[in-house]
Each structure stands twice: as structure tokens, then as C-alpha cells.
Amino acid sequence: MDRFEANVQANQERFLAELQEFCRKPSIIAQGIGIEETADWVRDRLQGVGFDSQVIQVEGGAPVVYGEMGSGDKTLMIYNHYDVQPPEPLDLWDSGPFDAEIRDGRVWARGVSDNKGPWMARVQAIEAYQKEIGELPFRIKWIVEGEEEIGSPNLGRFVEENKELLAGADACLWEGGRRDGAGRPVISLGMKGIAYLGLSVSGASSDLHSMNAPIVGNPAWRLIWALASLKDENENITVDGLMDHVVKPTEEEWEYLRGIPFDEEESKQDFGINSFLKDATGPDVVKQLLFDPTCTICGFLTGYTGPGLKTVLPNQASAKVDFRLVPDLNPELVLRLVREHLDRRGFTDVNVELLAQLWPYRSPVEHPWVKASISVARDIFGAEPVVYPSSAGGGPMYQLCGTFGIPGISGGGVGNPNSNLHAPNENIYVEDYMRSILYTGHLINAIGSL
């Protein structure tokens, strides 16, 4: 791999200029800016390194770019996205969000870390690998979507409509990846899902004077009592049967959990709290964060809360509740369990609606391609990787990896602890970007040797 590394070093200036070109293309899905043009650019760049690539239209959604190249008895799926978050507030940027300036050893641009930098690093690694090493040792199937920043609402439809095209992969190299504050590469192997529910109760035909409270039901109290049945004062989810579906960490996953650095005192100080829920300490804090489902009241709306007094008996009450899901929970199952739980307690008048959903996914940590990614990260970054069997947040990993029953591996990315994802002054270090190119090339070589 010496020639590959020399090629990457020799082309650093060109590679960075190309990254800047990509980052200067606004592709803001939430605002409908630059999506079609950027998809075409991604397709053309994949074609430039030998991929048979195409833009696939998804009804009602942003186009997905698909590329395929290589041959052999192994297939790697790669997932990235070309859309970015809105750059506002613009006045907090030190340079234009789409200027892609390089200064102080960093590239500053909206999307440079999430997710244009990781995608471009992989493309350039494949270019250098083919030039110096030769043909890819296996097939690659690459999916680059344009709606990740709004929850990938149409990725599932794309997968369903193109199952034959996508089938046959052994693993998926997921988007993202970063190093932590100590310079250790972070590898994540899963994501939580979400069931975002809307609960509502109706009462009288209109708001009433509160003097009627002795004879007319109050929807606010009905909803409060219903919500209180979902979780107890000890922070245990009490929805009938829900916890029976939660898969506990394996011993190997526990080993990785124990190796995840977590500064308890600093985190409590940052959050402005004195203790964690259930008085958790040590690895139990990380276990709760990554492996436990949640039930969170995100908002509650009813009655009058304006200035002054208004003695009102409201006729409507509503709340939004999110459940963060772990295997083997899923949004449809949670919706059914909540509905049945409320009905058993007489809350048939509480309407429950599934507003948004993502399925959880967790990869087998013992998979040989997972082991290869850990080994390569150790060599390239010169530090022991921190392996997250799952993340605390959600994402569309299930829609690709779960559908085909393959591990999803996020690692070797360009991020740093202060990359400011989704915030002003998003950035990556030039050094991390070049390492990410090296990581991808070495990972290709490692997987090809398995």
C-alpha cells in the first residue's frame, strides 16, 4: 500500500480543491435548494472513477444516486448523503457557509463533515487505489441519497422499489465517522429507532367556563393520567409488554461499552444536573444511553397559558411523545402496545397517532468486516478505536442494513469533537480528511484479503 499512500500525499492539493468544489454547491433539502444539480454532480463524479452510476428518481422525494463497480464473490454497500442542513444563522459564520475556505488547518463549510467530506474522501480513495493497486477486489454498490437531513422519508421506498438492484451485499460502510477529543477513531455499529407519537383527547364541543368542572370532563386531566401510566416515578417504562422486547447487550458488546470514555462529572456540569437517572454511574450510564429505550414527553398543549387569568375548562389537550427504540422494538409494535395499554386502563378516548418513525438497528460486533474496520482504524489513526455497538441517536440504517441483514459500519470519517455539525462554522481538519482517504483505501485492501 506504499504506492497508494504516496499517491494520496501527492494529490492532496487537488483532492482538497475538489472537496471545496463539492462543498460550494448548496444542496439544502429543507429549503429545496440545489438538490437536482448536486445529484447530477455526484453521479458524474462516480462515473469519473469508473462507476456505472445513475440518478434514480423517487416519487415525491429527492433523487438517489446509485453507482456500481467491481466484481468478485464479495460486495460492499456504501451509504452517504449529498444533502446538508440549512446554514442559518448566517451572521454566526466566520466565512460564508458555502465558501469552503481553508484556514488554520481546517476546511470550513456547511456539509463538509456531514456528509460531503466523508463521501468525497471515499471517492478519492477508490481513485487512488485503482491507479496504484489495480482493480477493486470486490463489488461496490453505492447509495447516495438527498433526504437524510429531513429523516430519509423516502429511502425505504427507494429500497423497496430497487431490492433486486441492491441485494447481495455482505456489509455496508455507513456515513459519518469521527475522532474523539483524545484523537481516538470512533466506530459505530448501530442506531436507535424512533416512534414519534401524537396523543390527544377531546371533551366538550368548545372551551367552557371552569365553573362547569364538577360536571364536565377535563381533557387535560385525562391526558395527564394517560401519560402518567406510560412511565413510573422511578423512570421505568411501564407500557404493558414493551420491555419484554428489549434485547440485552451481549458480553462482547458489554466489553465495548466498558471501553467507551465518558466523563461523568463534565457531562453533569454541561447538563446542569447533579446526577444521572437511576443514579447510574460508570458503564451503566453508557449502557442506559445506548441500549435502553426511552419514553419522552416532548410537548404538551392545552387550555390557556397567556398573561393574566382565564378560568377555562379546555375542550382539547394534546401531547407529543417520542420513544427511542432499540432491538427488538419497532414503531408499529410500539404504537400497538401503547394503544392496547391505554385501552386496558379505560383510556379509549385518548387518540394515538404515529407521526414519524425509524426502525432501530444493531450490527453483530463479531462480524469479520467489523473486525477489519477496527484493525484498519487502529493502524491509520495510531490509537485504539472506540467502538459504539449503537449510537444514542437515530438514523435510517435499518432501511438498508436491516432490509438485507448486513452489518452497518460507520468509521474512518472526517469529523472532530468541534466539527459543529448542524451549526455555524462547520469544519474538518485537513489532516483528518487525508486520514479518511487512507482509511478507505486500506479498508478495501483488508476486506479484499479476508
Topology readout:
Blueprint: H1 2-10, H2 12-23, H3 35-48, E1 52-56, E2 64-69, E3 75-81, E4 101-103, E5 106-108, H4 112-132, E6 139-145, H5 155-161, H6 163-166, E7 171-173, E8 178-179, E9 185-188, E10 190-191, E11 193-202, E12 208-209, H7 219-228, H8 251-258, H9 264-271, H10 283-291, E13 296-302, E14 312-313, E15 316-325, H11 331-344, E16 351-358, E17 361-362, H12 368-381, E18 386-388, H13 397-404, E19 408-409, E20 427-429, H14 430-448
Helix pairs in contact: 1-4, 1-14, 2-4, 4-14, 12-14
Short précis:
With 450 residues, the chain is of the alpha+beta class.
Q: What is the CATH H-level superfamily of the largest domain? A: Zn peptidases
Number of strands: 20
Largest sheet: 6 strands, mixed
Shape: globular
Widest beta sheet: strand line-up: 1-2-6-3-7-19
- The residue fraction in helices comes out at 25-40%
Give the number of helices: 14
> Could you name the CATH class of the largest domain?
Alpha Beta
Regarding quaternary structure, what we see is single chain
Overall SS class: alpha+beta
**Rg estimate, integer Å:** 24 Å
Q: Give the total of domains.
A: 2
